[in-house]
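Protocol step 4 of 5: obtain the predicted structure for the target chain.
Materials: sequence only (see below). No template structures provided, no constraints applied. The aim of this step is simply to have a reference model before the mutagenesis design in step 5. Sequence pasted as it appears in the construct record:
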Amino acid sequence: MTVGRRAVVTAGAGLALALAGAPAARAQGSPTRGHPPQGHPRMRTVFLAGDSTAAQKYADAAPETGWGMALPFFLHKGLTVANHAVNGRSTKSFLDEGRLDAILTAIRPGDLLLVQFGHNDQKTADPTRYTEPWTTYQDNLRVFVEGARTRGALPVLATSVERRRFAADGTALRTHGAYPAAMRETALEADVPLLDVEALSLALWQRLGPEATKTYFNWTATEQDNTHFNPPGAVEVARLVAAELLRTHVLTPRETRRLDDGIDEIPTDRITWPVSEPVLEES
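Step 4 output (structure tokens):
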């Protein structure tokens, strides 16, 4: 390994303050890593590979909202979102089910593959999903990276968004163990843009505190869900993702919008929950 694990963990801990201070920093004159090849003036697609925190939700789950459903609010025309995130998936189960293969049949040069896993890779009791952070998890991330690159697309890794969990003294807690650090190391070694959503969301939950965060998570009259989001929460996480895509020069300022808009300025009434998940026919 070219980067020590302890160094990566330490660096990641400091990112919460460093990144949160300027999440939408614009580095003037810096090249954009995700700019499409010349001669391809077409609409580009941001493919999402991830779990339930990003996934499209359906009517039976409303008002639960994946952040991928809100990402288009922050992207200009010319960028579309293909949300392939699925509830309950880990890097292992996503690959084993052929879901990356499906993405790679559709992805084109200049497109982005944004990968965010970790919640379900932690499931030690489930061999169909569990991965060990410093071995199988990193190996699987490399499969996503190489798959995108072989198609001429840009892979982007995003650490898992944090859950709503606080200590008795009100300190927001990390809940993903070594997985964010393992992803940071993989991104450095593979020279892949990293969106440190774990650090940024942890800092956001800390600023909001235990009570205010309830208005961002899927707390309803019948459910107290500290992992998944309602529309305002999905919007705020999508804002973090879009700001990180800008900060890391994956996208240009022209390709993002509304990053400074208040939550009341975002038309969350445009978020929709289809009646049912479409059935994919086998060819």
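Step 4 remarks: The radius of gyration is 18 Å. The mean pLDDT is 89.
Proceed to step 5.
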